[in-house]
Design brief:
This protein folds into two domains: 39 residues, no CATH class; 45 residues, no CATH class. It is built from four helices and two strands, in the order E-H-E-H-H-H. The protein has a two-stranded parallel ribbon. Strand 1, helix 1 and strand 2 form a beta-alpha-beta unit. It starts with a strand and ends with a helix. The relative contact order is 0.08. The mean pLDDT is 83.
């Protein structure tokens, strides 16, 4: 789990909870908001494009929805910054150019 260095992510109860659940925590460098920008952008898009104000669902349903969105984001969702390709298409395209 990646986060900024907000106090709530450093709180002992939070740290104990993530350790008990075998979750690895990484943090942005102090005073460098650019580190967190790509993650914040992705989660903003996920909430806008996937959530649509739907009622709460079970953890399992939410997990499936997020996994499906990540698959869509990586393989089908085109980005103008990636020459109109999905991230996977762009990686394949650039690796072919380098070969």
């Amino acid at each position: 789990m990646h986060s900024d260095q907000g106090w709530h992510y450093q709180h002992n109860k939070w740290l104990k909870t993530i350790k008990e659940n075998k979750i690895f925590q990484s943090m942005s460098r102090k005073g460098n908001c650019i580190d967190n920008s790509p993650v914040e952008n992705f989660f903003g898009l996920l909430k806008q494009e996937m959530y649509h104000g739907e009622e709460l669902c079970s953890f399992e349903d939410l997990k499936k929805m997020i996994e499906a969105y990540i698959e869509y984001y990586n393989t089908k969702r085109i980005k103008q910054k990636l020459a109109g390709m999905s991230p996977v298409q762009y990686r394949i395209h650039t690796s072919q150019l380098a070969a």
